[in-house]
Amino acid sequence: MDTEPARAKVNLFLHVTGRREDGYHMLDSLVVFPDIGDVLHASPAAGLSLSVIGPFAGGLHGEMDNLVLRAARALAAELAIAEGAQLMLEKRLPVASGIGGGSADAAAALRLLCRFWSIPRDSGVLARIALGLGADVPV
Fold first, then answer.
1. Residue 47 is part of which domain span?
2. What's the mean per-residue pLDDT of the chain?
C-alpha cells in the first residue's frame, strides 16, 4: 500500500489586495504546512473507489463528489489510465475548518496516483487538473 501525506495549510496572514477579472481575489499571503494532516493510501483495484476512516470521517457525506475521487478521476481521464485504485483517506483534520483539508487531500491524491500508476509528474498537466479542482489545490 502506497501512502501520501496531505498536510494542513495554515495562513499566517492573508490580505485581499484586489479582484481579478475572473472573479477570484488577488491575495498577499504567507502559508505554512505543519506536520499534521490527513493521510491518503492507495492499493491495487479494478476501479476507482474511496473509503474514509479516522476521527473526522463522519463529516464527509457522499463518496461521489469527494475531491479525492474527483482528482483521481480527472487524472485517469486526462491520461487515459485504465488501472484502478482503492483509495483510503485517514481524515485527521476537521471538515470545513479552513485549514485546506479537502484541497490538500486532492493534491495528495494527484501526487500519490502519479507514483502509484508510474506517471511522470508533468507539471503542466497536474497544474491544470489541480486548478480545475479548486484554487487552493495547486498550493
1. 2-7+35-133
2. 91
The predicted model scores a pTM of 0.89
Q: Please indicate whether residue 122 is annotated as part of the active site.
A: no
Annotated catalytic residue 105 = no
Whole-angstrom CA distances from 59 to 28, 74, 91, 93, 94 are: 31, 24, 9, 10, 8
Q: Which CATH number characterizes residue 100's domain?
A: 3.30.230.10
pLDDT tens digits for range 8-46: 999 899 999 999 999 989 999 999 999 999 999 999 999
Set 9, 38, 91, 105: catalytic member: 9
Is residue 44 within 8 A of residue 90, CB to CB? The reply is: no
Closest of 102, 117, 39, 31 to residue 71, by C-alpha:
102
Position 25 in a domain: no
Burial of 117 (0-12, 13-18, 19+ CB in 10 A): middle
